[in-house]
Amino acid sequence: MPGTFSLEIVTPTRILFQGEVEMLRAPGTLGSFQVFPGHAPLISTLEVGEIDIRLPGGKERAIATSGGFVEVLRKGVTVLAETAEFAEEIDKARAEQAVARAKQQLEHLRTTARVKAEAATRQVSDAEVEMALIRALNRLRVAQREH
Amino acid sequence: MPNLRMIRRRINAVNNIQQVTRAMKMIAASRMRKAQENILVARPYVRRLETLLRHIASRIPQGAHPLLEVRPVKKALLIVVAGDRGLCRGFNANAIRRTVERYGELKAQGVECSLIAVGRKPYEYFGKRGFPIAASHTGIFQHLNFLDAQEIASEATKLFLNRDADLVEIVYNEFKSVIQQVVVLERFLPVEPIAPEDGDMPCHYLYEPSLEAIWSSIVGKFVNLEIWRVLLESNAAEQSARMTAMEEATKSAEEMTKRLIGIRNQVRQTNITTELTEIVGAANALE
Fold this sequence. Notes:
The complex is a heterodimer of chains A (about 150) and B (about 290).
Chain A: E1 5-11, E2 14-21, E3 23-28, E4 31-35, E5 42-54, E6 60-73, E7 76-81, E8 84-86, H1 92-112, H2 116-121, H3 126-146
Parallel strand pairs in A: 1-7
Antiparallel strand pairs in A: 1-2, 3-4, 3-5, 5-6, 6-7, 6-8
Helix pairs in contact in A: 1-3
Chain B: H1 4-59, E1 75-81, H2 91-108, E2 112-118, H3 120-128, E3 133-137, H4 146-161, E4 167-177, E5 180-189, E6 206-208, H5 211-286
Parallel strand pairs in B: 1-2, 1-4, 2-3
Antiparallel strand pairs in B: 4-5
Helix pairs in contact in B: 1-5, 4-5
């Protein structure tokens, strides 16, 4: 008989979720981990990935995040995410566009990178575009998982 | 006896001013709504990040991170955040007064003090009076940008890390409600540790990947976000202060118009009475 614990998922633009859950699964830097009621206090950084929560009654919801922090205390769990959105909120068409755009940008950067002078003056780095691509792919993946 | 034409002119002038203040009130109101929304959504996140940071800070040894280091205070830095423009009651004046007060206190303790001025008003005030200004940012509230917050944060942390400041404090107007702004003074650096409330019994955290990795990634975010929150706070406070100020101005313009109209009617009446008496007098004389 699973108990529940209180969970808050907060981003800089809103409080995404606040309430009791039975389980939290989060993409920790050292790998995905799960939190059940009575988990030992923990602080972890999060990577780009998927957060899953199980509501009382067993319904699961998927959330796409682009990283952040988790603090597990005895009184409850706080997730501080840079961005977070429920799978059903993600606009799939736009997510696909974002993936395409990031891929194209990356391709463009790679082909022009041979010109050294240009590489030095470039505003966006490969790493940034790559991160954008990873984030976009993640959103798309989470969005598709739901349906 | 006031001249009728003069009174009419004054009524017109007051009406014109009222139109301006009313327009300014509307502009401030719409900006305030936006600013209020911004601060209300940002506040929970930053506050929680702050709690998390302080929890961690309370568990890592003193001096484990340069931004935690408590040194004897010989030099201090005050960041004063106010506005670019006036017409907002005590908004600028209060922040400036609090800063001057704190400056005096620190001076009295033999602490060397410098300032970072955010907003044209404090910049002009302290610049004119020859206060040592380490950096200034003006005109950033028109379009608040996270990059501005980053820049201010990096200036402050740099001064702290170079030991040009052993203490960094920040003075700003906190947005309490539309009709209430409160000037607050908070310590920015070094970061003040707070132990988690939860722990009557010592709770041992697990850190993933490691305490140091978490710490450095969180500290970097926090200093930027904290300044960002302060800018949003101050901006919301400024807009609401201006809205109230303009509302009051509009009201007093209205009252003044009423009073002037009263005087005008009186004068007009007296004029008519005088004229009538003159006509009657003249008619009588002719008979």
